[in-house]
Amino acid sequence: MIKKNYKATHSINREIQKDLQNYLYKLIEARIRKGETIDYLQVFNLYILNKNGTEVQQIIHEQEKPKYLKVHYKNDIIHLKHGITIWVIDDGPFFTMMFPKDY
Predict the structure, then answer these.
(1) pTM (2 d.p.)
(2) Is pLDDT above 90 for 1?
(3) DSSP letter string over the chain?
């Protein structure tokens, strides 16, 4: 069981819908449940991609140490984002979601 609290900056709460925020947290949690090594900084790059005539949210999930990169696609996002980078920092009891400019 993952016992973390979740925080987000005001700008994240203003610009990123809650279901997308929750999805990003779930991607991290899934890796933790699998026993993968998680860096304190998780990076998500968001793009709009056209798949078979439908726009979907492409999420590129990365970390530096150990190196990790995986691409996810989500088709039920209402407000798609393009060219946006989101950081999630593990600062002990919290996962804090922010834009790099908020750091």
Answers:
(1) 0.94
(2) no
(3) ----EEEE-HHHHHHS-HHHHHHHHHHHHHHHHTT----SEEEEEEEEEEETTEEEEEEEEEETTTTEEEEEEES--SS---SEEEEEEE-SSEEEEE-GGG-
